[in-house]
Write a structure and sequence with these properties.
Mean pLDDT: 90
Oligomer: single chain
Strand content: 15-25%
Largest sheet: 8 strands, mixed
């Protein structure tokens, strides 16, 4: 029987007191990301669930994630409509945040007298019942997250998974809800659009006891915004965890300065011992420009007039060569020979290993097989095929530092390299220009496949390193997806005609259409 005394939005203490496993929870919008996750969280916690969506069943994009729940719990799901019986049979209704309060459906729900719950109510009521670690940073967080989950599985710990194919799932309500699904541990990638308070809210909702920060660079930053203000968004992440546990890249002066400014009490650091011939400049947290002997873009060896300098990391990669490196830790040392290549991936390995050992308490000696068996994240330096003695590689990189790091690493392997650029930078024209400048500097030939990269390329003509295409004249942009399938394919074909040992296709479009990237 419905409890008609509840207010429209139930408060946390009322939920704890009045809701029970005998109640029925109606989830509106189960074909959407949030509705889908809420339904699964509720079922994972043994609650009776019924679902509805205005979409027909054959258009329900994420229905495959519900299949195990349909077999186990057999919840009623109404497609193509929101029948009256759904409203009358539910004791509580949860509508997605995207449903306007002025919509006919919301008004109908309210008029039905059924108690209305919001996503925040669910998050306050159902707490994570497992260790939670959040991973953030400008670059490397996907690989670090994926590797740490891989290590956990080797140790017999099952991580929670949101399960959405082709959806990164590091923003909005996805990480907090993912952490409440069934599993032994929660390893959550947490991103930000660079908007103040967004990362802060996500961390508060996710309730981690530990956080990993890979780096802070201005790659996701519009030119009109201040870098240190953007960096301070990560400061919200640090502030939440400063009395818990933080694992950070101490080779990053901006990040390390931010850590020092927050007086954090439990910090584990990681870094690499590598000779550098590249000089870089970055803002120290004190506001001064600081010179860096870069290992990868924006991180390395540094010392600022304010007294901030690189200190010896707790987890250090040394004796680095093409086959692997020596890992030195407070718990001992070991030689690692990972399958994933490049200094940027060594940083990712260090962060994941530190999280596994220091937070999940997995013995160091148990990690070797897990790390060395990890084959990377699809779309990150992913080998596709070899054609006419040219290796074809795809990389998802779509910001200046990511592109620069990938090209630097590939140039250590290939003496001549062609880059096909399919990117449209989230930073706009300034980002497109910076990406193209770095690509032109590091690659032997550059093929601008996207319209955005073509516009950037035209500022450098004439240049015999630039190979233009005809389809790049066609305008297309959808977020960082900068090229169509036809533009990607034409770019690759032109790249394969260049006199180089490898062709790397860069960007989200290259990754999205990688199945179409086949030998001519």
């Amino acid at each position: 029987m419905k409890n008609k005394t509840h207010p429209a939005t139930t408060k946390n203490h009322q939920i704890m007191k009045d809701q029970s496993h005998e109640s029925t929870y109606g989830v509106v919008g189960v074909c959407g990301v949030v509705g889908n996750l809420i339904a699964r969280v509720l079922m994972d916690h043994g609650l009776n669930v019924t679902c509805t969506d205005i979409k027909p069943e054959d258009e329900c994009r994420f229905r495959y994630t519900l299949e195990p729940y349909l077999k186990k719990y057999n919840p009623p799901i109404y497609f193509s409509s929101h029948p009256e019986s759904f409203l009358t049979e539910s004791d509580y209704l949860i509508a997605p945040p995207s449903l306007p309060k002025t919509s006919k459906l919301f008004k109908k729900i309210k008029e039905s007298g059924t108690n209305i719950l919001e996503v925040e109510d669910i998050l306050r009521w159902i707490k994570p019942d497992k260790p939670v670690i959040c991973i953030t940073g400008t670059n490397g967080k996907t690989t670090t997250t994926t590797l740490l989950k891989h290590i956990c599985r080797f140790a017999g710990l099952e991580p929670t998974e949101h399960g959405f194919r082709d959806l990164q799932g590091n923003i909005d309500y996805i990480p907090p809800l993912q952490g409440r699904l069934n599993g032994d541990v929660a390893v959550l990638e947490t991103g930000t659009f660079g908007v103040p308070e967004d990362l802060k809210q996500m961390i508060k909702r996710s309730k981690p006891s530990c956080g990993i920060i890979t780096n802070i660079t201005p790659d996701h930053l519009d030119k009109d915004h201040d870098f240190l203000s953007y960096a301070n968004i990560k400061g919200d992440f640090i502030e939440y965890l400063k009395d818990k546990q933080l694992i950070v890249n101490s080779d990053d002066p901006t990040l390390w300065g931010l850590i020092k400014s927050k007086n954090c009490i439990n910090v584990v650091s990681f870094g690499v011992d590598s000779q550098s011939t590249v000089k870089g400049v970055k803002k120290c947290w004190c506001g001064r420009e600081i010179f860096i002997d870069e290992t990868i873009s924006g991180v390395g060896y540094y010392e600022c007039e304010c007294g901030l300098k690189r200190s010896e990391p707790n987890y250090l990669a040394t004796d680095i060569n093409e086959s692997g490196f020596t890992l030195k830790t407070p718990h001992g040392s070991m030689k690692l020979n990972p399958k994933i290549m490049g200094l940027h991936n060594i940083y990712n390995i260090l962060g994941a290993v530190a999280g596994a050992v220091d937070f999940f308490k997995i013995p160091l000696e148990d990690l070797k097989e897990a790390v060395e068996s990890f084959e990377g994240v699809p779309g990150r330096l992913e080998y596709m095929f070899t054609f006419n003695e040219k290796d074809v590689i795809v990389d998802y990189g779509h910001n200046p530092a990511g592109v620069e790091t990938v090209l630097r690493e590939l140039k250590k392997v290939y003496n001549k390299l062609t880059a096909v650029v399919t990117i449209s930078s989230e930073s706009g024209v300034s980002g497109d220009d910076e990406i193209f400048r770095k690509t032109l500097e590091l690659a032997d030939f550059v093929v601008p496949a996207s319209n955005s990269s073509r516009i950037a390329a035209e500022k450098h003509l004439p240049n015999n390193k630039i190979v233009m295409t005809s389809r790049s004249l066609e305008k297309f942009r959808e977020g960082t997806l900068g090229a169509t399938q036809d533009q990607v394919i034409e770019g690759l074909k032109r790249g394969l005609k260049c006199d180089s040992r490898a062709v790397v296709c860069l960007g989200e479009a290259a990754f999205k259409y990688k199945e179409s990237i086949m030998p001519p």
